[in-house]
């Protein structure tokens, strides 16, 4: 393994070379250019950060000049009155040079920043003295401070001591008497007007993003620092609320011998001393409930969870979860508690408001709706023929799901889906979808035919030849066929289809909504409802189409829990890698007796997204996982086939257009059709005929410039475990939150 040289990390250029020269000049003046500390004053009662000094001194100035109009300068009398008070305040403050130094003859102004606030300093050649970092004493050489100041660069750290005053324009400033050099910025600062606009660079180099955001003159919304400050306030508010309600915070293992607590694929490692496999925890649930068995009636943990799954704007392999349990409470009490806690925490995080702007929506945290899962399906699909009772039939569920697959609705749009029903009674909605009568009549004929085809799935699997004649693909047969397997109980078949149907309408749940009455068979850790044994006492909280919380009345019957685990193990044998594994010790713990209890898990990252108007989870995580950084020169040196493989890795970037340009440039090299197919195969991209689609975004449908014979198209795909189990090659394109297909791989037409 090679070790990089400094110049390979910080590539030399005119700016970095000038900064190196300045560093050596400063070293000759002050000695140690990276001193160990700088003691700040305490006129505010605490250590004087720039933010505290500005907050402390500004009211003194405002008491005399607060009545001035915008851009109006204070009079000499007003300025003298303010300075008579401010000059008595001597401060020692430190910070980063927020702008390049401005020298005007024998004086200079510059702003210092502590990352949150700025304070102007005034350096006059004959007044300022430089401090030696070797001795801590004033440097006696003439004009040493002025020389020091002239070798400063934008972004350097300095400490100054002096007295406060306001300038002729009324700006609070420090008249510098001593100056001390603290640290050199070897790289130039980002553009103060635009900051860092590339999302990938913001996430990959968060330190630079924080600097750029703090130095940026104008902001659209919160700065990067303010995003994470609001995150901290939200977490602090939730902790305080739980502490005030007698919950005890605990810490449970991050490495566990079993990957339990949720249905997810884990990260795995190996403990060399114990000679056992371990898993990064996917949820702390079973440990926290063990503590409930042990007598902790109210317990919570706020920490990281890990799931070895895909990346998206809502998913990160490492994420923060708040999970807590309360004895003698049921699912309804937990929903009430969750609602009140979120209201209080949101109010504190935002500074008092319960309404937040998220994209084009305004989220109102003062109101929480509650809907049963089937109620939500009926409400948002808007099929006149469908009622809750209709959805209780497995035959109807198969028919409906097959119809939706045939229509390729993907993500259903409220108010439009009624036009896809065989019942044409809802004229108002139909007119919105089809403005012309002849267009509607023709569309309705096609829709009726699709309902007829969907009826093929109502009772049993159709013959493959019959299916093919009716336009049904192997993928459709494979998926629906999974719910005709004799070994799977009807209730489980219905549960999976209802869950799939509900998944289509999740984006429509904009305002805070608790979805309740989940099928029991997909809720292995929750109690059944006393009124309906096939329904779990479970809820999920959706806000702006995102699942933000999941809670239920906890199952505390050890024998029933054992059976639920067995059902999950059967799912694993059928190919579901995310089904839960058996946890014998948890069964043993329940056998000691656990009181009735309710529990909940709340996704902190998604809540922060909502409160900060950020649309990618990676924008609310300080250091999200990124693909290894690659230099363009390295890519250019690789063979055409290897370059094509690397392009597939670049596709996950947020800027699909840039990924397209990357691909186009790669095809300018000698990539043959066979080489491209080979590179796709080596990257484990399934090759197969793409289901015919009308893609919304033309950018993704045009032929790739320079592609051999123009024989490739781009779509995002996913293959469910049911399709893997049935050995089907067909992929299912999917849409993003905005209803557009996303780039993910290339397939032969």
What features would you highlight for this structure?
749 residues; alpha+beta; eight-stranded mixed sheet; five-stranded mixed barrel; 25 helices
Structure description:
There is one protein chain. This protein is an alpha+beta fold and 749 residues long. 37% of the residues lie in helices and 18% in strands. It is built from 25 helices and 24 strands. The strands form six sheets. The chain has an eight-stranded mixed beta sheet, sandwiched between helices. A five-stranded mixed beta barrel has the order 1-3-4-7-6. Strand 14 and strand 15 form a beta hairpin. Helix 12 packs across helix 14. The longest helix has 21 residues, at 224-244. Mean pLDDT is 78; it is low at 409-442, 483-487, 632-673 and 679-749.
Report a brief summary of the structure.
With 749 residues, the protein is an alpha+beta fold. 37% of the residues lie in helices and 18% in strands. It has 25 helices and 24 strands.
């Amino acid at each position: 393994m090679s070790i990089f040289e400094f110049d390979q990390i910080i590539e030399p250029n005119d700016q970095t070379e000038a900064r190196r020269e300045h560093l050596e000049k400063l070293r000759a003046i002050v000695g140690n250019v990276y001193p160990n500390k700088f003691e700040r004053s305490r006129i505010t009662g605490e250590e004087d950060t720039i933010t505290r000094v500005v907050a402390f001194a500004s009211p003194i100035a405002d008491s005399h000049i607060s009545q001035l109009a915008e851009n109006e300068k204070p009079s000499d009398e007003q300025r003298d009155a303010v300075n008579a008070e401010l000059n008595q305040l001597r401060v020692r403050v430190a910070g980063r040079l927020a702008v390049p130094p401005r020298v005007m003859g024998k004086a200079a102004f510059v702003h210092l920043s502590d990352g949150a606030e700025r304070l102007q300093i005034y350096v006059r050649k004959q007044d300022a003295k430089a401090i030696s970092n070797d001795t801590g004493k004033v440097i006696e050489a003439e004009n040493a401070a002025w020389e020091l100041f002239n070798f400063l660069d934008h972004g350097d750290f300095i400490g100054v001591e002096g007295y406060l005053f306001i300038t002729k324009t009324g700006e609070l400033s420090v008249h510098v008497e001593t100056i001390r050099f603290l640290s050199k910025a070897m790289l130039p600062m980002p553009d103060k007007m635009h900051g860092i606009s590339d999302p990938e660079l913001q996430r990959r180099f968060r330190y630079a993003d924080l600097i750029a955001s703090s130095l940026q003159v104008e902001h659209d919304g919160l700065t990067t620092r303010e995003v994470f400050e609001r995150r901290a306030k939200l977490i602090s508010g939730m902790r305080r609320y739980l502490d005030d309600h007698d919950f005890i915070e605990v810490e449970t293992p991050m490495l566990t011998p079993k990957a339990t607590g949720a249905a997810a694929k884990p990260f795995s490692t190996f403990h060399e001393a114990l000679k056992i496999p371990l898993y990064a925890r996917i949820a702390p649930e079973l440990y926290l409930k063990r503590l409930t068995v042990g007598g902790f009636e109210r317990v919570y943990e706020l920490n990281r969870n890990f799931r070895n799954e895909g990346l998206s704007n809502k998913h990160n392999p490492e994420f923060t979860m708040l999970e807590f349990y309360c004895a003698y409470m049921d699912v309804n009490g937990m929903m009430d508690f969750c609602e009140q806690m979120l209201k209080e925490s949101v109010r504190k995080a935002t500074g008092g408001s319960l309404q937040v702007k998220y994209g084009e929506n305004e989220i109102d945290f003062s109101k929480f709706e509650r809907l049963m899962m089937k109620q939500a399906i009926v409400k948002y699909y808007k099929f006149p023929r469908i009622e809750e009772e209709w959805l209780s039939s497995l035959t109807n569920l198969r028919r409906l799901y097959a119809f939706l697959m045939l229509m390729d609705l993907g993500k259903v749009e409220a108010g439009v889906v009624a036009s896809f029903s065989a019942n044409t009674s809802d004229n108002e909605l139909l007119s919105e979808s089809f403005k012309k009568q002849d267009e509607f009549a023709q569309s309705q004929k096609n829709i009726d035919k699709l309902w007829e085809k969907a009826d093929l799935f109502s009772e049993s699997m159709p013959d493959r030849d019959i299916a093919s004649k009716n336009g049904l693909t192997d993928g459709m047969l494979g998926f629906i066929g999974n719910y005709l397997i004799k070994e799977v109980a009807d209730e489980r078949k219905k549960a999976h289809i209802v869950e799939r149907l509900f998944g289509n309408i999740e984006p429509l749940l904009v305002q805070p909504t608790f979805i309740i009455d989940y099928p029991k068979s997909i809720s292995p850790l929750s109690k059944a409802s006393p009124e309906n044994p096939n329904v779990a006492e479970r809820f999920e909280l959706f806000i702006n189409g995102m699942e933000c919380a999941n809670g239920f009345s906890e199952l505390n019957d050890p024998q029933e829990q054992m059976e639920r685990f067995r059902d999950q193990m059967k799912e694993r044998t059928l190919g579901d890698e995310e089904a839960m594994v058996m946890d014998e010790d948890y069964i043993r713990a329940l056998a000691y007796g656990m009181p009735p209890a309710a529990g909940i898990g709340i996704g902190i990252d998604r809540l922060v997204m909502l409160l900060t108007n950020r649309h990618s989870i990676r924008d609310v995580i300080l250091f999200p996982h990124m693909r290894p950084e690659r230099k363009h020169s390295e890519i250019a040196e690789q063979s055409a086939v290897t370059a094509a493989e690397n392009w597939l890795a670049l596709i996950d970037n947020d800027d699909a257009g840039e990924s397209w340009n990357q691909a186009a440039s790669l095809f300018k090299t000698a990539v043959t059709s066979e080489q491209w197919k080979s590179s796709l195969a080596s990257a484990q991209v399934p090759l197969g005929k793409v289901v015919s689609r009308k893609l919304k975004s033309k950018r993704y449908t045009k032929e790739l410039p320079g592609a051999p014979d123009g024989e490739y198209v781009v779509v995002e795909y996913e293959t469910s475990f049911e399709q893997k189990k049935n050995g089907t090659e067909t992929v299912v394109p999917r849409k993003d939150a905005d209803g557009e297909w996303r780039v993910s791989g290339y397939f032969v037409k």
